[in-house]
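Bit of a strange request maybe. I'm writing a small parser for structure token strings and I need a real example to test against, not something I typed by hand. Could someone generate the tokens for this chain?
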Amino acid sequence: MTRLSLHHTGQCRHPEWSTRRDRSLRPCSFPMHAAVIDRGGDLTVFDPGYAPRFMTATSPFPERLYRWMTPTDAPASSALAAQLGDRRAAVTTVVISHFHADHVAGLADFPQARIVCARGAWQHFRALSGFSAVRAGYLKSLIPDWVEDRLTFADDLPARPLPPGFAPMRDGRDLHGDGSVLLMPLPGHSVGQMGAALTGADGIPRLLIADASWSVPALRDDAPPPGLTLRLIGSAAEFRETWGRLRALMAQNPGTRLIACHCAASAQGEACGHP
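Reply from user aminoacidic:
Good idea to test on real output. This should exercise your parser:
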């Protein structure tokens, strides 16, 4: 039986207009939710989120630019590892949707886990350094040396058709070999970004969309980020294509629940953990 819980790991602030073009320049708080998928006591984490080491990683230059651009609050009590407590030892898999720092700061807290990401995401992360890495949203010091030895690339997992509730998405990669969690590419926001499809114990299909949109209401309203934001991300063309596919999914499957990492609205109705 598969159960999903969301955990608020911290938050950052930047103008809401930068995430949906119909809003103002007023600064807005964006929570970062880590998702924990419980398969009968075996835990899978989808993006561990913020942890206090984010603040350490953004102390030197040019990494400090990251913190200046997106002021961040990441207290120790909010880290996913702190919220899980003794259950942290039950985490056997950590899925990284993409390597932006707000999604991976907590990764070092799970050295026992298999790490799963897209091959392209890892290659892009490894290829950049210095200012180029920071501009891409990466903080290299957040990824421990042991990660490379524990990597599994989603591209190499078995392909499996997605259930009808995720149409027009067709195929996913079977994370555990039992169809309980299927990974699929959601490119655009960052190179190699992935989402995860699962059906909860309540029978509701859920799609974790990472940062394919910063909010589900923006998707519903067809209010994408402005052109300036799209020019700064991985690929504006791929972002728009993914955006269109997700809107089509919402239209065809109104009972499917989309969950964005930074969206408070999409977390409503889910089991949520807070420090």
